[in-house]
DUF421 domain-containing protein (Sutcliffiella cohnii), 241 residues
Amino acid sequence: MLEFLQEQLLIFGRIITILPLLLLMTLFMGKRAIGELPIFDFLIIVILGAIVGADIADPSIHHLPTAIAIVTVAIFQRLIARWKIANRKVGRLLTFEPTIVIQDGKFIDKHMKKERYSMDNILQMLREKDVFDINEVETAIIEPNGALSVLKKPEKNTVTREDMNIQKPTSTLALPVIMEGTVYRDVLAEFQLDEAWLRQQLANHGVHELHKVFFASINKQKEVHFSLKDENSVAIPMLRH
């Protein structure tokens, strides 16, 4: 019993000493390590977690080497961060490239597959940016840290008080009616429409086969906007990082 209590006190003491050290090392590594978490910084966090977890869980591990390992990892991260800033090639090797997943209001499905982002992922991230209609998007980019950056089309940007002394929201709600070739008939029924009407709308734009449609949505004005699979009708800008 006494030995058990001693182990618990030892673990408690390690937690009390490790937390301030981790805080100091995190501040030393800088905001970037916790604010953006690019791939290298993510690995650093994983390594630190493994070191600290082993030290706390196993009282037989000597405490001082753990503290030295934490400081060493923090210094290593700081040196690599400086090297990445000084050398662009190193920076590009240690981070993901930004990837365009929407251009001119159309999904770029090959880029989504490459980054392993589903349509649902992108739609949710758009909603978090207060974008409920893909047709409002000029460009959407998956950043190296996994976040979505959105540039709205100029005519879809909100007019501000600085522009006209009014606040004019322009975002509208568009509901999916086709996702990867599957027609959502229940959504069409809400608009008192059917699949034949949808096929006609697509045919008016030269699309005669539903299985070629990657995504299509309809808004309150009964306007249909769609993206084709392997979309090649838009020019995709080259991004460098």
